[in-house]
Amino acid sequence: MLDDQPCLIQTATRPVVSVPYTVEMNDIAMMALQHHPSEEWLRRGIDHFDRLYQEGEKSARVMAISLHPYISGVPHRIGYVEKLYEYILQRPGVMLWTGEQILDWYTKR
């Protein structure tokens, strides 16, 4: 299962590229539905990133982070988002891209 890499899916009319999107790092699922505290979102994000970064030594990985301003952008949560991005950006070779940028990279390689 390629849930952390883009992949090409053949359809009846033309191929479609599936860009990774997960609920594991989705603030709606974690905070609004499962009622995890912000600290858990940060811990999970660091653990998730560390594993994908390790696996990414052999081939590229995509860590989807799904944020919504009305959940993670509120004053008592935004600091955890900032801490996760600070942690991620300390590592060499990390890119912060939109889905469109990931698609462009994937289709040009």
Describe this structure in words.
The structure is a single chain. With 109 residues, the chain is mainly alpha-helical. The chain has one domain (21-108). Helices cover 47% and strands 6% of the residues. It is built from five helices and two strands, in the order ββααααα. The chain has helices at residues 27-33, 38-55, 69-72, 78-89, 99-108, and strands spanning 7-9, 16-18. A two-stranded antiparallel ribbon has the order 1-2.
Question: What is this structure's SSE topology?
Answer:
Layout lengths: L6 E3 L6 E3 L8 H7 L4 H18 L13 H4 L5 H12 L9 H10 L1
Antiparallel strand pairs: 1-2
Helix pairs in contact: 2-4
The overall pLDDT, averaged over residues, is 94
| Spatial separation of the terminal alpha carbons | 21 Å
> From N to C, what is the helix and strand string?
EEHHHHH
Please give the count of helices. 5
Radius of gyration: 15 Å
Number of strands: 2
- Which strands sit side by side, in order, in the main sheet? 1-2
Portion in strands: 5-15%
What summary fits the major beta sheet?
Answer: 2 strands, antiparallel
Strand pairing plus helix content: what structural class?
mainly alpha
Brief rundown of the structure:
With 109 residues, the protein is mostly helical. The chain contains 5 helices and 2 strands.
